[in-house]
Amino acid sequence: MGRLRAFLVVLALLVSGATAVSAADIRITEMAVTTKIVRNNPIDSVKRISSTSVKALYCFTRLVNPSGEESVIKHVWYQNGEVVGEQELSVKGEKWRTWSKKPIDRESVGKWRVEALDSGGKLLKAVEFKIN
To answer: Where is the signal peptide (predicted)?
Structure first.
C-alpha cells in the first residue's frame, strides 16, 4: 500500500505540473536599497536620501534556494504607489546574491518601495524608502 500511495502522490504532482521543490521555497535572508555594491555586498541601507546625492540606487537581495535549481525572482520598483520599473533576476544556486538598479533624478522625489516576487508572483519581501 505504501508504494501505491507514493506512486499516486508523484502522479498528482506530475498532473498538476508541480515539483517537489518549487520556486516558492526561495527565502530572502537580506534585502536592502543601497547607494553602491562593493564585492557583491551593499555598502549601506537607504531609508531616506536626496535625489541629488546619487545617480542610481540598487536593490540588493540575498536569498536561499533550497533546491539549487535555476529560477528567477523579480524586483518591482514603486514610486508613490505606481510601478515604475520591473527587473527579472536569475537565481542559479542554493545561496545567491543579486540586485537591480534604478536611475535617480530630480523627478524621483517621493515614497518608494521595492518588492521581490518569486516566479509565481508571490511576494517574498519588500523594502521602503523615501527620496527627497
So the answer is: 1-23
